[in-house]
Specification:
Layout: H1 3-29, H2 36-47, E1 51-53, E2 58-60, E3 64-75, E4 84-96, H3 97-100, E5 104-121, H4 149-154, E6 162-165, E7 168-179, E8 184-196, E9 198-199, E10 204-212, E11 215-223, E12 235-243, E13 247-256, E14 263-273, H5 275-281, E15 298-307, E16 310-320, E17 323-332, E18 338-345, E19 348-349, H6 383-387, E20 389-401, E21 404-416, E22 419-429, E23 432-441, E24 448-459, H7 460-468, E25 473-486, H8 490-496, E26 498-511, H9 515-520, H10 522-525, E27 537-550, E28 553-563, E29 566-575, E30 580-589, E31 609-613, E32 618-622, H11 624-628, H12 635-641, H13 645-651, H14 653-665
Parallel strand pairs: 5-6, 5-7, 18-20, 19-20
Antiparallel strand pairs: 1-3, 2-3, 3-4, 4-5, 6-9, 7-8, 8-10, 10-11, 11-12, 12-13, 13-14, 14-15, 15-16, 16-17, 17-18, 20-21, 21-22, 22-23, 23-24, 24-25, 25-26, 26-27, 27-28, 28-29, 29-30, 30-31, 31-32
């Protein structure tokens, strides 16, 4: 070997040894403790907060460049209850020096132990985040000249060729949020995060756990690989989150941050759990459902894809107890939500999930007292509904709610420009069909609503029995109702309710009222004489009730009842606000057993019936004055009232006896002798 080269190598070796010795010896010789006040001052100047380093500064240079700090505190500005904004029990980072020069990041340790972060909001609205980092330096004016290509290249961050982290951990962390304005305080304690197998070409294992407001939660799984250029390629996710050791959610799929708008394609699965137990443990159960077995099991699965600007849900499946729903949806433009939804539910008994009805005993009920003046209610904010764009279709095969039973429900709902419309909606119920077309207009502060309802072929008896638990009406019901109302409270709706409609019943009965007996026996029918053993009823072949409503006052417009031996018309009003009745029924006795379709002109004696009282306690009484003002039937009228030969054959002596009893028991007839 030539001597010049030999000497050059010797000099280089000496230099390398000198550098290595300096790197190793320097930390042992240099006393960084005396620079601690200067470090604290510079850090406080940069952050705009007081900084203290309570423990020693332990640097390392070769082969791992790093530093270890302990008892680090970043203070709060004056006026906050907590002294520190951030405190760290121990912090250590160590990176291999020489590989950094080639873009190879080899991190031996990155450990943060016992970190504590306190976010605080005072009553005046000021937070301890304000002013963090000091005053921002003025941004220089942008240059119009294009920078040289070589300069722009030099500004690019150094490429990462490789990444290896032996140890990454955050242990025993604590996050505290204090809102003095709202009187709220939330804390996340015992926060632990560990990353293992950290590299660019393998999935990173994640283990996270914490206790949020005394409730444990955890997250485990993998994310990655990141790829040679993190953020420039899709990243796989396989994570499992668990809440209070009850709710377990698994998320699988990928996210792609490389696009101008990041994309994601995920599958979410919620394992079966008990919502009742969860809500009870969280002390969020608003009431006890009527069915003690309700809310016992809930499971959910669906696929999510899209971006932060648009989300598509497909293959959705929700299981709640013994009900199953499938659904799909799309949502975009979240600041002005544009939602499409399709859902199908097989069956549900909604009464199971409602609170049980309160038991009321008539004998214990207190006397009615004047209602107190209602407090002024805060106006509902409908701004979100004004922005909503909706196109939804919902199908329910079998539904029970408020004891009403419905099948084959199909509803289509649309919304736009503050107008929400439910049309068409069709429902099978009680052997008939219901069609509904309704709108809700929230363009103004007070909502305006319309409802057009058509009922065909319903069995009225079971319907009213299930809905009101009362026997009021029987028969086949066909109706057409058109209503309009304003407001969003029951009181405002009743006061503004207007519209018209017609209720028509065939081949049924009015239960609880015996109009024929009111004609035959005034005393017993109106509570003067003996109470009949059987529940009174008025059978009819046709009952037609046309009505109009204006500002909460409903009026009957010549309602008609056609039944054997009797025709009756009714007029009057029902005040929906005060819930009072003011009606008059004019029954006419006729000598026929025909009902609907009987067009023969009949004559007879009328016993008007006055109906008053309230909806809960209606009162019936005869209009005595109206009876006495009627002319007595003449001979010809009596002949017309007598049954024909054909009817006599059909009804026999029973009909004749009914007619004779009728004349005897009228107030101006011969008093009936007691046996």
């Amino acid at each position: 070997m030539p001597k010049p080269i030999k000497w050059i190598l010797i000099v280089l070796a000496i230099l390398v040894v000198t550098v290595i010795m300096a790197v190793i010896v320097a930390p042992m010789v240099i006393n960084l403790e005396k620079y601690k006040p200067r470090i604290e001052a510079e850090a406080a100047k940069a952050l705009g907060r007081p900084v203290t380093l309570g423990g020693k500064i332990e640097p390392s240079v070769f082969p791992w460049v790093g530093v270890a700090l302990s008892d680090v505190h970043l203070g709060n500005p004056p006026g906050f209850t907590q002294k520190d904004f951030v405190s760290v029990g121990h912090f250590e980072v160590r990176v291999k020096l020489l590989p950094l020069l080639s873009g190879d990041y080899q991190i031996k340790r990155f450990v943060v132990a016992e970190p504590r972060i306190v976010m605080e909001k005072r009553k005046d609205g000021k937070t301890n985040l304000e002013g963090l980092g000091g005053a921002a330096a003025p941004t220089p004016a942008a240059k119009t000249e294009k920078a040289p290509a070589e300069n722009s290249k030099s500004d690019q961050p150094m490429a990462i060729k490789a990444l290896v982290v032996d140890e990454f951990a955050i242990t025993k962390g604590d996050l505290l949020y204090i809102d003095d304005a709202a009187g709220a305080r939330h804390e996340v304690k015992d926060l632990n995060l560990t990353l293992t197998d950290v590299s660019l070409d393998k999935p990173i294992r994640i283990m996270f756990s914490a206790v949020a407001d005394k409730y444990p939660l955890s997250l485990t799984g993998t994310a990655g690989p990141l790829g040679p250029q993190p953020g420039k390629a899709p990243m796989d996710l396989n994570l499992v989150a668990e809440l209070i050791k009850q709710v377990k959610v698994q998320v699988q799929g990928s996210v792609d941050p490389s696009k101008a708008t990041p994309q994601f394609d995920l599958h979410l699965q919620l394992a079966p759990f008990s919502p009742r137990k969860l809500l009870t443990d969280l002390k969020l159960m608003p009431f006890e459902p009527a069915d003690p077995k309700a809310l016992d099991s809930l499971a959910l699965s669906m696929a999510l894809s899209g971006s932060p600007e648009s989300v598509t849900v497909s293959g959705g499946k929700l299981n709640l107890d013994d009900s199953q729903m499938t659904f799909q949806a799309r949502a975009k433009a979240f600041e002005k939500p544009d939602i499409q939804l399709k859902a199908e539910l097989d069956r549900i008994d909604a009464d199971r999930y409602l609170p049980p009805p309160a038991e009321q005993k008539a004998e214990e009920s207190a006397p009615a007292t004047p209602a107190a003046t209602p407090a002024v209610q805060k106006k509902t904010d409908y701004s979100a509904l004004r922005k909503l764009v909706l196109d939804a279709q919902i199908k329910i095969a079998d539904l029970k709610v408020k004891n009403l039973r419905m099948q084959n429900i199909v509803m289509k709902a649309t919304a736009g420009n503050g107008v929400i419309r439910l049309s068409p909606a069709s429902i099978d119920l009680y052997n008939g069909k219901m069609a509904l077309d309704s709108t809700l207009n929230v363009q103004q502060d007070a909502p305006r609503s319309t409802a057009n309802l058509a009922l065909n072929g319903l069995q009225a008896g079971p319907l009213v029995k299930d809905m009101m638990n009362k026997d009021i009406i029987e028969g086949v019901m066909n109706s057409s109702i058109n209503l309009q109302f304003n407001g969003d409270t029951p009181e405002r709706i009743r006061r503004s309710l207007s519209g018209k409609g017609e209720l028509k019943f065939n081949d049924g009965a009015i239960v609880g009222i015996d109009l024929a007996n009111m004609v035959r026996n005034v005393q017993s029918s109106f509570g003067i004489g003996d109470v009949p053993a059987q529940k009174p009823r008025t059978d009819f072949s046709e009952l037609v009730v046309p009505f109009t409503i204006a500002d909460g006052l409903a009026k009957l417009n010549n309602a008609q009842v056609n039944s054997p031996l009797l025709r009756a018309s009714a007029n009057g009003s029902a005040d929906l606000v005060q819930e009072t009745l003011d009606m008059r029924v004019d029954p006419t006795f006729v000598t026929t057993l025909k009902g609907q379709g009987d067009t023969k002109q009949r004559t007879g004696l009328m016993v008007p019936v006055l109906i008053s009282g309230t909806f809960d306690k209606p009162k019936f009484r005869p209009d005595i004055k109206g009876i006495l003002n009627q002319p007595l039937p003449d001979k010809e009228a009596l002949k017309q009232m007598a049954p024909s030969q054909q009817e006599i054959k059909e009804t026999g002596k029973e009909l004749e006896k009914k007619a004779q009893d009728l004349l005897k028991e009228l107030p101006f007839g011969k008093p009936q002798q007691k046996q």
